[in-house]
Design goal:
Elements lengths: L8 H30 L3 H36 L4 H36 L11 H36 L6 H6 L1
Length: 177
């Protein structure tokens, strides 16, 4: 906080990055279905969504690390309270792990399964082992997206609460929260 009681640059940056990250995750979640419905083929839509998801995974890693650093700096300047600080740091760490898992484990495996099935992937019955494996990975991918979305929204809300002074300030507040 600045002497006038307004959030400083770093606090504003934290809130902006948290909101930007949450918005990007929501936009991707909403837009992925549109891409699949409007692409000439589902395979084409999948290629576009994969490129977007890869970019979102990298952005999630970067933003989670930046928000972790900013949260630590902001907490030193004006303590957020033990619960808010602990929850923020844990959520951001979990979100970074989820982004890593999506980018380096889940998505490459999904691409490999799709390539293994070839151009007939969309014609495979739901009971086919390749299709079932891909569907399981897709569900895990959605879960990592949801984990990141919850973490981004919570990080923003916890930061907003701390920055705007909704939490009580002073040494007693840090010990009780």
């Amino acid at each position: 906080m600045t002497p006038g009681g307004r959030p400083g640059f770093l606090a504003g940056l934290y809130l902006f990055l948290g909101a930007l990250w949450a918005g990007a995750l929501v936009f991707f979640a909403a837009g992925a279905g549109i891409v699949l419905r409007t692409a000439p083929t589902r395979a084409d839509g999948g290629v576009v969504n994969r490129a977007l998801l890869d970019a979102l995974d990298v952005a999630s890693l970067v933003l989670a690390v930046l928000l972790l650093a900013l949260a630590a700096v902001l907490d030193r300047r004006r303590p957020w309270g033990r619960a808010a600080r602990g929850l923020s740091l844990r959520l951001l760490a979990v979100a970074a792990v989820a982004a890593f898992v999506s980018l380096y484990l889940i998505t490459p495996e999904m691409v490999a399964l799709r390539a293994k099935a070839g151009s007939l992937f969309d014609a495979l019955p739901a009971s086919d082992p390749l299709r079932r494996g891909w569907s399981r990975l897709h569900a895990l991918s959605l879960l990592t997206l949801l984990v990141r979305l919850v973490a981004a929204v919570a990080a923003f809300l916890l930061g907003f609460r701390s920055v705007t002074g909704a939490a009580a300030s002073g040494p007693e507040a840090g010990a009780s929260t």
